[in-house]
Design goal:
Blueprint: H1 8-15, H2 26-32, E1 39-43, H3 50-64, E2 72-76, H4 83-91, E3 98-102, H5 105-112, E4 124-132, E5 135-139, H6 147-157, E6 162-166, H7 171-183, E7 188-192, H8 195-203, E8 209-210, H9 214-222, E9 226-231, E10 257-263, H10 269-283, H11 286-294, E11 303-304, H12 305-326, H13 328-332
Parallel strand pairs: 1-2, 1-3, 6-7, 6-8
Antiparallel strand pairs: 3-10, 4-10, 4-11, 5-9
Helix pairs in contact: 2-10
């Protein structure tokens, strides 16, 4: 049985149930607040990718389960490796009807694009819904069948080898730079607007490999058009029991992707708590947990509010270190 850790914010609300807040308790205020108009559900990536699929699944379940009196409207803003979405959210400060579905570009894009003028620490943390993973994929008929064979191939091919990925200066390009550093290779990185485009172009053989998330590549994998070589996880996932991890093969390459929902700076506390309650109910649903199991996501801990803010701060520092390790030039000029 999964143990779901409640957020510090949620526990804190119980502890201050008797505190006054605008003429009533915080709990009463949160219970009284609800969306008065459609909620913009901003996706900081293109259509068809993991973030897009997850956002639209959440939107569909929210509607199906009648969790909100107003609809959630998915809107893709992938420009500038998520910079478009981040600026949009920054400029919506104080808006209780706009949410952002994030991936790790939530951390990396402001770090790499220093003139963006966005501080994600000011955003309102709602809920972490999953930890997503990365695998190394090649076309099904590729002669490569191991990480060592892949390493030898990319060293031999050099810039002739093409790795497809989502955007530049974000997750896929960071992981590509980690792989290059591990094997002493210098390959060509081809950026696409979203993971769906990356997946399609791999099976179309417009590039040679990718580090797609499972949700992005599973359709083609199940159709026998692509194959996973290695997982970049601490341990093998249940969804891929026969695929080794890089770590168990002697290569310390571990990288994961957070899937969280955040509000703009200055969202009201009542709205924040209402959204936390909604996403906790969604997280605990059988539909969401089944999706996580089938698509190789880790969904055994619900993290929200102040706990999510702490998680974000830890990962900002982690990504600063990763960028320093591989070099900013390595992830933006591939």
């Amino acid at each position: 049985m999964r143990t779901i850790r409640k957020s510090a914010l949620g526990l804190g609300l119980a502890a201050i149930a008797g505190a006054a807040f605008l003429g009533g308790t915080v709990q009463q205020a949160a219970a009284e607040w609800q969306p008065r108009k459609p909620v913009e559900f901003i996706i900081m990536a293109g259509t068809g990718g993991g973030a897009d699929q997850i956002a639209r699944l959440m939107q569909g379940l929210i509607q199906q389960k009648d969790l909100s009196p107003r609809p959630f409207i998915p809107i893709n803003k992938p420009g500038g490796s998520g910079a478009e979405a981040l600026r949009y959210m920054h400029d919506k400060a104080g808006d209780d009807h706009t949410l952002l579905v994030t991936l790790n570009s939530f951390y990396t894009t402001p770090l790499v694009q220093e003139n963006l003028g966005v501080d994600i620490a000011e955003f309102t943390p709602i809920a972490r819904m999953a930890i997503d993973t990365f695998l190394l994929w090649v076309p099904a008929d590729s002669e490569i069948d191991s990480l060592e064979a892949f390493g030898e191939k990319i060293k031999a091919e050099g810039r002739n080898w093409k790795m497809g990925g989502t955007g530049t200066g974000q997750e896929d390009s960071i992981l590509t730079a980690m792989i290059e550093a591990e094997f002493g290779a210098d390959i060509t990185y081809i950026p696409y607007p979203g993971g769906g485009d990356v997946a399609k172009n791999l099976v179309g053989k417009h590039h040679d490999s990718t580090v797609n998330n499972p949700a992005e590549q599973n359709e083609f994998y199940r159709a026998g058009q692509s194959k996973p070589i290695v997982q970049f996880t601490e341990e093998r996932m249940e969804a891929y029991p026969d695929v080794p991890t890089a770590k168990e093969l002697g290569h310390d390459i571990v990288y994961f992707m957070q899937r969280s929902v955040n509000g703009p700076p200055g969202m009201s506390e009542e709205a924040q708590q209402w959204y936390i309650s909604l996403f906790e109910e969604l997280f605990n649903s059988q539909e969401w947990q089944d999706f996580c199991a089938s698509d190789g996501l880790t969904c055994d801990e619900f993290v929200a509010g102040e706990d999510l803010a702490a998680f974000h701060q830890t990962n900002i520092e982690r990504h600063k270190a990763l960028i320093d390790q591989v070099g900013a030039d390595a992830i933006v000029s591939q």
